[in-house]
Amino acid sequence: MDIVTGQLRLRGKLALVTGAAQGIGEATVRRLASEGARVVCVDLDDKVVAMAQAVGGETLAIVGDVTDVTVLRAAVQETERRWGRIDILVNNAGIDGAPALLADGEDRDFDRVIDVNLRACWLAMKLVLPGMVAGGGGAIVNVASVAALIGFETLSIYSASKAALVGMTRTAALEYGRHNIRVNALCPGGVLTPLALSFMDEGTTQAWADKHALKRFAEPEEIAAAVAFLASNDASFITGAAIPVDGGMTAH
Ligand code: NAI
Is 158 a catalytic residue? Predict the structure, then answer.
């Protein structure tokens, strides 16, 4: 809600969110919808359908893998056919891969993590940018990670994918700013979602929490609030930024 005008900040906006079935993606869908946006939700997991129904309003679910260009193309075309345009893209789908020291990493893990965390974001941006240019503007939020900014033992491939996503974000911002398209990356710290739980061993949860100045993990809703801000006109002069939303993890 815009406190000054009392208007819903994203009223009339059309958003596409990937990795929408759970965690940060689900919280983002709920937040964007609560601010007035119509949201297209893409996820591998078919529970995205029930999630979109539960959110209600004009929320559409598409089940598919974002690394498959035909899935992304169909999502963009279906959205543009139904609602005319995409104003907001949130590239959120991401995986961490199997934790391993660099020398022990598997080729297939490298390929899959880069495919999901980087190549799929590139594909989605390629597909939505022409419509945003034609429509006179847009906002793209790429969900990166603090792992783009600092190192994490056993997460070299993940870190590389997220650092590359930040690099791509900055360049896209330079290329499309003249079209009133803002492109930003968000760098969350630890967020208690299934993904975060997958790289914490039993008993290390508190140690991970202690890496943050706030000595706790984020709730997915705290990341979704930052996504909604970057997607809205409240962030009208922010582009090409990689913004830590990390409870002070990178303040060291
Ligand atoms: P999550 O594992 O809880 O949810 C990710 C969602 O993406 C799932 O619904 C999954 O089905 C979907 N997904 C994965 N691969 C997909 C594919 N190829 N095609 C379509 N959907 C796919 O993860 P979480 O924690 O919500 O993470 C969301 C994003 O935030 C990811 O990009 C992650 O790297 C990033 N992030 C998460 C942090 C955390 O501590 N949870 C910290 C920093 C960044």
Answer: yes
